């Protein structure tokens, strides 16, 4: 459902389209902060709850699985109800998850909290992407780049927020202000979004969606690229603060700052990547991003000097983040109106299942061998996405 369709001025900063972009990006920032604050908190959480590396990795895997399995239902609901209905519902579910995490004194409650947050994000994401794709056509890459930058900015603030919370209070206190902020932004979504609320039964039509997507060869390969890239992205970001401490000799605070720096670079890169993608081609821009990401993590693996490690992190962060808005814009451009949210939700479900395994596999490899070995595996994954994306471009 297009709902109050587009303000054809496609303004990024004013008018109806600008307000919706602001409300969506504000929600994305807080939802991502609620999840991405977990990696810099994991060393403390692990010590407090007695978690092994594999158990710590499973925390983010559970989150990603919950996100994955709720993307398709979220997309179908956004197509058949209204995007506003699903945006508000997803945000409210996320707030419940944040409240649960603020009371997590056992591993089981911790897993319940991250699961509920994952459900909320899974509902929210396809509705947000679809509403922005409907409002912005010529500037779709830029709008999605700003949205992705908001998600990435959650990681930027996560390291600093974690350091402040750990200096002043128990780690559980981190989730309360995020919940309050998200509630305030959700109120803006309610007020600014012109779409009506709709509630009625929506059939999932999983078979029809599957047949439609499998019939498109470009979509099949796009899912492969997204799955491998997402797997490596999740593993790399989940353990980056731990990897920098264990393998590169960083202190806990320096590792948290570096973690935030990677996301800061990414947040600055994504709107630019979207603009470049709109002008030069989204798939070509995605290929450049995969090459930069591979180069950055390669430097990170080989470097021992802190300055060189920092340079590798900058390149890694830029490539890591630039990929998402342009590949999303490319994918949304191949899907038809009417089923766009559900189809993208189905694609997202598939690649997020693969993505969710990244932190678990990285944790298992680190436990069995070393963090260097785990990151070498992730490097191979990033490099393979560069090769497949280049091959797809050659077929155009």
Helix-strand string: HHHHHHHHHHHHHHH
> Would you count the extended β strands for me?
0
CATH topology: Growth Hormone, Chain: A
Which CATH architecture would you pick?
Up-down Bundle
Which segments are poorly predicted (pLDDT under 50) over 5 or more consecutive residues?
1-7
Q: What number is the mean pLDDT?
A: 86
Based on Cα principal axes, name the global outline.
globular
Helical region count?
15
Q: Termini separation (Å)? A: 31 Å
- Secondary structure category: mainly alpha
Please tell me the total number of domains.
1
What share of residues are in beta strands?
Answer: under 5%
Describe this structure in words.
This protein has helices spanning 15-36, 38-49, 53-80, 83-101, 107-135, 140-168, 175-192, 206-214, 217-238, 240-248, 252-280, 282-302, 306-334, 340-368, 371-395. With 396 residues, the protein is mainly α. α9 crosses α14, α9 (217-238) runs antiparallel to α15 (371-395) and α14 (340-368) packs antiparallel against α15 (371-395). It is globular, with a radius of gyration of 20 Å.
